[in-house]
Design brief:
The complex is a heterodimer of chains A (114) and B (112).
Chain A lengths: L3 E2 L4 E5 L4 E7 L4 E9 L6 E7 L4 E4 L2 E6 L4 E6 L8 E9 L8 E2 L3 E6 L1
Parallel strand pairs in A: 2-11
Antiparallel strand pairs in A: 1-3, 3-8, 4-5, 4-9, 6-7, 7-8, 9-10, 9-11
Chain B lengths: L3 E4 L2 E4 L5 E7 L5 E8 L3 E10 L2 E4 L6 E3 L9 E3 L8 E8 L6 E3 L3 E5 L1
Classes of the chains: A mainly beta (114), B mainly beta (112).
Amino acid sequence: DQQVKQNSPSLSVQEGRISILNCDYTNSMFDYFLWYKKYPAEGPTFLISISSIKDKNEDGRFTVFLNKSAKHLSLHIVPSQPGDSAVYFCAASLYGGATNKLIFGTGTLLAVQP
Amino acid sequence: DAEITQSPRHKITETGRQVTLACHQTWNHNNMFWYRQDLGHGLRLIHYSYGVQDTNKGEVSDGYSVSRSNTEDLPLTLESAASSQTSVYFCASSEGDGGRAFFGQGTRLTVV
């Protein structure tokens, strides 16, 4: 049973445009959500996170939106750059992240075309 | 700088052999995790530890074991390697901070 789902395996976007990556979850007890970015042959790196008490968190070109009623979050990248091309994983945790046990989605491969 | 390192980076082994993957972190984090990455499955949790002498099973723990004798290391052992365990393995560590974890660069394991 996949508790965190990323239904789009891949996404292609033109440089300078907005990239929107989506993530759905089923466990209403999740209260902390994170996005990780992964380049080939490297480990995932933390990108941005959001607590369930918020509906938006912004960091530079990256913004994460959380819709708790829909159990849905999204990552917006504006403007997209070729260096953003990578696999993006959505992750969720319980208890404010105190347990630090992250449940990951299957990932979305983002390709930003120059 | 603090870091988390995995070794080896690449490993080829035969079915039935015991294999141990190393993970060492200098963050002094209490929490350590092992994940495997497979196409179509994302990152799945194998085992995790919240401190010395503590180990817990994740969602895909069958055929794997870990031990935590100090803060810095969490080795992952495949008791009898199977072809289904061909994968890329990632070790991670964290300490509070909303679940944010730091990952190693991964070990690509091939079981032939």
